[in-house]
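Exercise 7. Predict the structure of Phosphatidylinositol 4-phosphate 5-kinase from Sesamum calycinum.
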Amino acid sequence: MSRALNGIVNAWEGKLKKSQAPAKKRANSLFTAMSVAHVDDDDIHPPGEVYHVEKVFSNGDVYMGQWADNCPNGHGKCLWADGCMYVGNWCKGKTMGKGKFSWPCGATYEGQFKSGYMDGEGTYTGSSEDTYRGTWVCNMMHGKGERNYANGDHYEGHWRRGQPHGNGKYLWNNGNQYIGHWRHGKMNGNGTMTWANGHRYEGSWEDGLPRGNGTFRWVDESFYVGMWSKDPKEQSGSYYPSNSQSGSFDWDPQEVYLKLSDCTINPGENISVFPSQKTVNWPCEGEDLQKHSSVRSHKTNDSRLRRASVDGSLSNAEHSLGSESDSSLDGSSECLDSGREVDERSGAHELDMSSGYPRPHIVLKPTKKQGLTISKGHKNYELMLNLQLGIRHSVGKPAPATSLDLKATAFDPRDKTWTRFPPQGSKHTPPHQSCEFRWKDYCPLVFRTLRKLFKVDPADYMLSLCGNDALRELSSPGKSGSFFYLTNDDKYMIKTMKKSEAKVLIRMLSAYYNHVRACENTLVTKFYGLHCVKLTGAAQKKVRFVIMGNLFCTQYAIHRRFDLKGSSHGRLTDKPESEIEATTTLKDLDLNYIFRMQKSWFQEFYSQVDRDCDFLEHERIMDYSLLVGIHFRDMSRSGKLLHADANVSADRSPIGNGDQTSDRAAPRLSTTDLDTPSYPIRWPSARLGSNIPARAEVTVRNNGEAQLVGEPTGEYYDVVLVFGIIDILQDYDISKKLEHAYKSFQYNPSAISAVDPRQYSKRFRDFIFRIFTEDA
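Solution. The predicted structure, encoded as C-alpha cells:
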C-alpha cells in the first residue's frame, strides 16, 4: 500500500508544480518526505490512541499523518482531488491550530485555523500577489490587518466581515490617500482625502462621497468651508483666500466629486473555495464522530440565532473575502459563538472582599452624549447663531503669520475689536437671519497664537464651532451660574462668564501664555478664545464667553467622573449608587479609589502638578479642581467589572504588537467602548492627562469618620484615566475673603474651599499626591 500511495503523491506533486509555476518562488512542495508508521486498515486501536496512517479515499483524496478516533487528530497533510492541500494541525477531523492551506492556482493561506475555518492571525497570498496579513474570523478578514492589492493599492486598518470598516488608511497607486473612518467598504464618517498634488478634503463622508460639513484646502493654504452634497442645490459654503492671494476666485465645489472618480476601492481577489468547505467526509468515521458532528450542527443553529439577535441578520458582507457561500459557515459553533459581536455595556458588580470590609456596589450604566441640542425655538437659539457668526468672522478673516514671540502690547486689556452684524450684512459681515448684534474680540492676536501653540487647525476649529451641527447645552448651569455648551464633535466647550472672570483671564493672560508655552504637558485648562456678544435694542444684553478644550473628548467611554479639590466641607454628592449616571460629577468624599500609575507617568504627573500649582499660586488663583474621568477596562461581556491581577502592573498593557518595553504603551481597548463593538479601533495615543493606563485600588472609609482618603483594600481595577485642572479663573478677592471669614466660625477652616491661595495650593497638592501614587 505504501508504494502505491507514494506513487499517487508523486503524481499529484508533479501536477501541482505545473499549476503553481508562477508561485514557485514563494511556495515549496508541501509533501516533503515524511516518516510514518504504516498501519493496516484492519488494525484495531483503543479510543484516544494516536497513530500514523496513510490513507487514499475512493474519491481520490489523500491523507498522511496522525489519526485517532477514526479521524485526523494531531499533525497531518491532506491532498484533495481538485489540487487543494493542507498541512498542519487537526482536531477531531477539523483543521485546528497552526497550518498552511494551498490552492491549485498558487494562492496560499498560512496562519491559525479553528474548526476548519481561517480564524485568528494569518496571511493570505493570492495567485496575483494580492496579500492580506492580519486577523480572521470565520474565513473573513475581521479585526486589524493590512492588504496589498495586485494593482499596487494598499489598505491598513480595521476590517469587518471582509470589508474595511472602522478607522483605516487607504493608499492608491496614483499617490492619493484617505485616512479616516470606513463603513462596509466605503469611506463613511470623518476622514481626510489627500490628493497627490497636495490638495485635500477634511470632513464628513457618506457612502464614499463627501456629505455634510467639510473643508477643502489648496496647497497655497486657501480653503473652502461649507456643507457638501452631490446635489448642487444642497451645496453651500464660504471661500477663504490665503494671505498671499488676491483677485477674484471662481471654483465649483462639485469638482471634488469628479476628482474622486479615480479613487475607487479595489475589490480584491476572490477565494474560489474556503478551507472549511474542504473537510473530508471521512468514510471510516464511527458513531462517536457522527455524534460529535450532530452536536456541532445543533450548536451552530443556536449560535446563528444568537448572532442574528445582535446583528439583525447574517449580512451579505459575510459571504466575502470577496464572497463566501453560506454553506461555508456551517459547523463552526465556536466561530460564531465567540462573543466578539456582543456589546452589553450596562451591568452591576458587587465587590467581593475577604478582608472584612463592606462590599461596595458598583453600577456602570451606558454612556451617552450630554446636553440638549439647541434647535429653533430654544431660548438661546439666536445667541448660538450670533456666536457662530462671530467666531467664523474672527477665525476666517485673513491675518499675517504669527510668531510665538508676542509683544507686550498684544496682552493690553484695551486690545479688543468691536464688529457690528446687521441682519442685511455689511462690507465685512455676511447677511444672517438673527437679530442685529455687536461682536467683541479680546486680545485676538494672543488667542490666535494660543490656538497655533495648541496645534489647533483654523478650519477644523471653525468647522467644530460653526458647522451646520448645532451646539448642545448642558442640562443645568454650574454653581457660578454660568452655562456650558458643547460642540457636536465634543472637542470644544463654551462657557458663559461673569465680568469678573473675564477680567481675571485678561489680567493673567501674559503669565498664562508663558506658562503653557514653557510646559507643553500642562494640565491647566486650554483657552482658545475670549469673546462678547452684545445684543442691540432695549435689552442691551452682554454675554461674555470663553472657548475651552473639552477634557473628556476621548475615544474611551467615561464611566465615572470626579471633581477633586482636597477639601471636605460640602464635598459629597447625596445620591445613591443606582442614581449615579456616567455624566454625574462626583466629589472628594465620593471618591473610593487610589490611582496607581506607572513610574514614568507618575514622575511626570508629580512634576507637572507642582509647576501648575506654583503658577496658579503666583497668580493668586484658588478654588480650582482636578477633574478626573475614569474608564474601566475590566468589563466582561455582560458589562460587569472584573478584578485586575494585583501582581500585574498597569504598564504591562501592550498596544497589540507584543511590545512590552515601551514606557508609553497605550492600554488595551475593550470593545465595550465602541459604536461598532465587533472590532477594535486604532489605539488612542497616551499623553499626560489623556488616556493614561493605571490601576485603581478600591478604598473603604470607616463608618462614622469623614475620611478624605479611605483605607486601601487590595482590590484593583484596570482603568484608563483622563484628567486636568479646571476652574482657574477665581482669584482670592474680597468676596472669597469674606466667605472664608464667615465659614471659619462655623466649620473647620482647613475643610472649607475658600482659603488663601498658598494654603489652597498646599492642601490641593497634599491630597492629589495621596490619591495618585506610583505603582510599585
